[in-house]
Specification:
Layout: E1 6-12, E2 24-31, E3 34-41, E4 46-54, H1 62-75, E5 85-90, E6 96-99, H2 108-115, E7 124-129, E8 134-139, H3 142-151, E9 156-159, H4 160-173, E10 181-185, E11 189-196, E12 199-207, H5 211-225, E13 233-238, H6 245-253, E14 256-258, E15 267-268, H7 281-284
Helix pairs in contact: 1-3
């Protein structure tokens, strides 16, 4: 593996690595500057492995980005096992949501082009958001498609945002938690969702560099809707540490602040006890989307 690649998390349960007799589900995520995956023992519904890598920023060149991921996959024994199903999410800023009742397949290119200034070439993909009753339009670069065809030809791909929206709405529907706003943070972006019980009022992804960027975008959105942060129940997902100064700031600015409990539909290997569940919320719920 190239020296510049950084493996920032690696956990697995060797007791349960029984080889190809297991029925395994693989979930993988493509972030702008990262790659991550989780392995689920589908018979026991038990997560047994999770790894995250910091790689070349996709914005500096898709070729370097894809080459880094190829290096990770080709040299990783866990990723070269036999998988019953493979799920992937791809993060891009361009996601267009259309109500299902007005969606027309023959018009998707025109609608997408009206809403998004394309920064990536590729065919337009369409995700079905069953709970939202909507369609999500986005583009995956051809080199990512080729990589998936090479290593995981039966992979089911979703947009990072559609996976997040469906997981959040499922939690609301099942009353696992009720929030007015959900904020999902990774190293390069923040996703903001405004909710009315089981309905989505607003979704958008913003680029960030600093913690203050997150606050700026949140309060910008709330101002447009006329909402007061002090009156809201806000659920934070992603890379927010409970013992950080940033989290203390958040608790001071917002009325009620929560982090989600683990999804009890799954079991987790002991190594997962040391990993904050909300850091990998989107990845660990990906295989149940749609």
């Amino acid at each position: 593996m190239p020296d510049h690649l950084k493996n920032i998390l690696s956990i697995s349960d060797p007791v349960n690595h029984k080889g190809n007799e297991q029925k395994l589900f693989l979930s993988i995520g493509f972030l702008p500057d990262g790659f991550l995956y989780a392995i689920l023992d589908a018979d026991a519904y038990r997560y047994q492995a999770l790894e995250e890598f910091k790689i070349a920023d996709k914005r500096s060149g898709i070729n370097h980005y894809v080459h880094d991921i190829q290096s990770i996959i080709s040299e990783n024994g866990l990723l070269n096992r036999s998988f019953h199903k493979v799920f992937a999410f791809y993060h891009s800023p361009g996601l267009v949501l259309i109500p299902q009742k007005i969606y027309r397949e023959q018009e998707k290119a025109q609608v997408y082009g009206m809403c998004v200034a394309p920064d990536e070439e590729g065919k337009i993909r369409v995700d079905s958001l069953n709970i939202l009753k909507a369609k999500g339009l986005y583009v995956v670069p051809p080199k990512i498609d080729s990589l998936l065809d090479q290593y995981f030809p039966e992979c089911r791909v979703r947009h990072y945002g559609t996976a997040l929206i469906e997981s959040v709405l499922a939690s609301q529907k099942l009353e696992k938690w009720q929030a007015d706003m959900v904020v999902h943070v990774n190293d390069t972006n923040v996703e903001i969702l405004l909710l009315d019980k089981q309905s989505l009022l607003f979704y958008r992804s913003f680029s960030i560099q600093f913690f203050d960027d997150i606050l700026y975008h949140i309060f910008y959105v709330l101002e447009k809707f006329g909402w007061d942060a002090g009156d809201l129940h806000t659920m934070f997902l992603g890379k927010i540490a409970m013992d950080s100064g940033e989290y203390e700031t958040i608790r001071d600015l917002f009325g009620k602040v929560s982090l989600p409990d683990r999804n009890d539909a799954y079991r987790y290997a002991g190594a997962f006890d040391d990993v904050p569940y909300h850091y990998y919320y989107n990845l660990l719920n990906l295989n149940s989307c749609g």
